[in-house]
Design brief:
Elements lengths: L1 H8 L3 E7 L2 H11 L6 E4 L9 E6 L5 E5 L18 E5 L5 E8 L8 H20 L3 E7 L15 H4 L5 E3 L6 E2 L17 E6 L6 E7 L32 E6 L2
Parallel strand pairs: 6-7, 9-11
Antiparallel strand pairs: 1-3, 2-3, 4-5, 5-6, 7-10, 8-10, 11-12
Amino acid sequence: MTARVIDDVDADIIAVVEAEDRPSLVRFNHDMLDRHYRHVMLVDGNDERGIDVGIMTKPGYPIGTIRSHVDTEDHVGTIFSRDCPQYEVTTPTGVALHVLVNHFKSQFGGGDNKRRRQADAVRDIVDDLVADDQHVIVLGDLNEGQPSLDEPPVNLRAMFDDDGPLVSCYDLDGFDAGERPGTFDTCSIRNRLDYILISHSLVPAFTGGTVFRRGLWGTRKTRPTAWDTYSDMTANIHQASDHAAVTVNLDL
């Protein structure tokens, strides 16, 4: 089902959250996706369980410079629970994109301060890139929902600052979140855990986006009624993920 979602979304650049290692991701692409992606990369992060984030890109979208932030620290200590790998991806037209893939601290046991530190660190990275006139995309499971449609995630304000360098996909004119606002489990606004944020330089290239939920069942026992699901999923054990896929379209 995970492969089916990836095939249906058909992204030129796709970020993957919770992958074991690069060999596993390469094999998944080979065996389940018919080598749909030409470039597959994963940098081991700080998670002791080996649950990392990766990226896959189609032919014509080579991955160039890769920068890890596993050792980034503040006065408290190591910041990123996994990593915030920074991939420079070039499009077929020669446009360079700096893609920052994230999986912030889970809500298990709280984690508010940890996510705040992670958001602050991402903001610092983005500020430097934007100051250098680079196009930036920040995406992933940030593990914190919004209190309401009009309020940003409390601990992630540095990334959602109205005067900051990034714009959330949910705030872009033409983005369609569907009948539910969230991306996880029941898809309430507080379960909006997954985001794509783009630098202001990319906003003119934005042509649309959506939350793809067909592979999402959640924890409920009966089939979700607030969004369409694959007909051959008959229980939550069949779902592709308990998170939906978030997409944006950029005409570059």
